[in-house]
Amino acid sequence: MTLKGKHRFETKTIHDGYESKSHHNSLASPIYQTSTFTFETAEAGEKRFAGEEPGYIYSRLGNPTVRMLEERIASLENAEAGLAFGSGMAAVSAVLMHLVKSGDHILCSEGVYGCTFGLLKMIEEKFGIEHDLLPLDSMEQIQQAIRSNTKVIYIETPINPTLKLIDLEMISSVAKEKGIKVVVDNTFSTPYLQRPLEFGCDIVLHSATKYIGGHGDVVAGLVVSDQGTITSIAKSTQKDIGGILSPFDAWLLLRGLKTLPIRMDRHCANARSVVEKLNEHSAVTNVMYPGQEESPSFLIAQKQMKSPGGLISFEINGGKQEAQNFMNHLRMIKIAVSLGDAETLIQHPATMTHAVVPEEERKRMGISESLIRLSIGLEAWEDIWEDIEQALER
Ligand SMILES: Cc1ncc(COP(=O)(O)O)c(C=O)c1O
C-alpha cells in the first residue's frame, strides 16, 4: 500500500509509490535492473500474457523501479496514473501518436520547445497531421482557431524561452465544450509550482531531465493522466514504439524528487533576486519573468502557479554578437541547453534550442538574436549575479 492522497506534497515526494515492507525493509528503493521476469510455469506465463494474473513480464512492458516512479509522479500531479519514458521527446511523441491520426489538427501554443516544433513539422509532412501555432491568449481567438478536425490543444506554460504564460483554466473550458484534449508540457514548473490537471487539463507531460531529476545526470520523460489514457498509451504507443526508461534512471529520478520542493524554493528565490538586479542594469533591455507586476503574464502566474519559477530570459543591448560575447565572458555560469540543474546554465535560443525554428517563426515567437535564457541554479544568488555583472560590463 502506498501513501497516495494522504499527505502533503513535500511528504509525497519522499514516500509515495514505495513501501519498504515489500522490499526487505530497504530504506532506499531497490533498482530492479533486469530486462525480463521469469514465470514459475508455462501456464503462469500464459496467464500473465492474457492479463489474468498480475505481475511483470518484460521491462519494456513494466518494471518495478519504473513503476514506483510512475506512482510517485501521478500522486504529485494529482493524477490517477503515470508513465515513464526514455526522454521528454519520447513522452511528447507517444502522447501525440496516441491522440491523433492522419487528417487531424493540433492547436499549439506559439512557442514550444524546438524539438516539439520539429516533431509537429515532421508529422505534418509525413502523416498529414496539421497544426497551427497561436498565442492562445483569448477565448475568442481559440474558438475561431478550432476546426472540425482539431483533436488536441498542446501547450507549454511558461512558454520556452519567452516565459509567457497561458491561462490553463480558460484553455480547458473552451476545449471541454468541443471535446478536445488539452496536453500541457509542465517541464518548466514541475508539479510543485503548477498542476494543470487541477485546472481541467487532460494530460500532463515532463522532460524529467530538468527539475525533476535536478542534477543534470539523466534524460527522461513522464506523462500523467487518467488511468484509461495511461493504460492505452502504455499498451499502444509506448509498448510498440518502445521509448521506455531504464530502471537505473527511474531510481535517479526517485532520488531527485525527494528534494524537489526545497530545490524549487531555492531556484525561485535566487531567480527573484537576479531579476531585480537585471532590471537595474543599463546593458539589459527586456527582462522576461512572469513574477514581475509589469509582465503581461503576472495575473495568470498568480492564479495558477505557486511561484513563477527559476528561469529568466532577457535581451541585452545589441544583437547576436553582443549576446555571444557576454556568454563567452562568464566565469562560473555554464553555457548549456538544459535547465533545472544545481548549476546555473545559460543558452542562446536563436542559435541553440530554437535554431530549428525558421527565422520568421522565431521572430513571431519573440525570440530575438539578443535573447538569452538563464536557468538559475542553487548557488548563492550573489555569486550568480556577480558573474553576470562582470560579463555584462565587459
Ligand atoms: C519544455 C521542454 N519540453 C520537452 C523537452 C524535451 O525533453 P528531453 O530533452 O528530455 O527529450 C525539453 C528539453 O529541453 C523542454 O525544454
Q: Can you describe what's shown?
A:
The protein has 394 residues and is an alpha/beta fold. It is built from 15 helices and twelve strands. The strands form two sheets. It has a seven-stranded mixed β-sheet, with helices on both faces. A five-stranded mixed β-sheet has the order 8-9-12-11-10, with helices on one face. Helix 7 links the parallel strand 4 and strand 5. Helix 3 runs parallel beside helix 10 and helix 11 (260-280) packs parallel to helix 15 (381-393). The mean pLDDT is 96. The chain binds pyridoxal-5'-phosphate. Residues 87-89, 113, 115, 156, 160, 185, 187, 207, 209, 219, 221 line the site of pyridoxal-5'-phosphate (PLP).
- One letter per element, helices H and strands E, the order comes to HHHEHEHEHEHEHEEHHHEHEHEEHEH
Number of helices: 15
Distance between the termini: 58 Å
* Unreliable residue stretches: none
The rough form would be described as: globular
Overall SS class: alpha/beta
* Percent range of helical residues: 40-55%
Radius of gyration: 21 Å
Major beta sheet summary: 7 strands, mixed
> What small-molecule ligands were found?
pyridoxal-5'-phosphate
* Strand content bin: 5-15%
Q: Order of strands side by side in the largest beta sheet?
A: 1-7-6-5-4-2-3
Average pLDDT reading: 96
Using DSSP, what is the number of strands?
A: 12
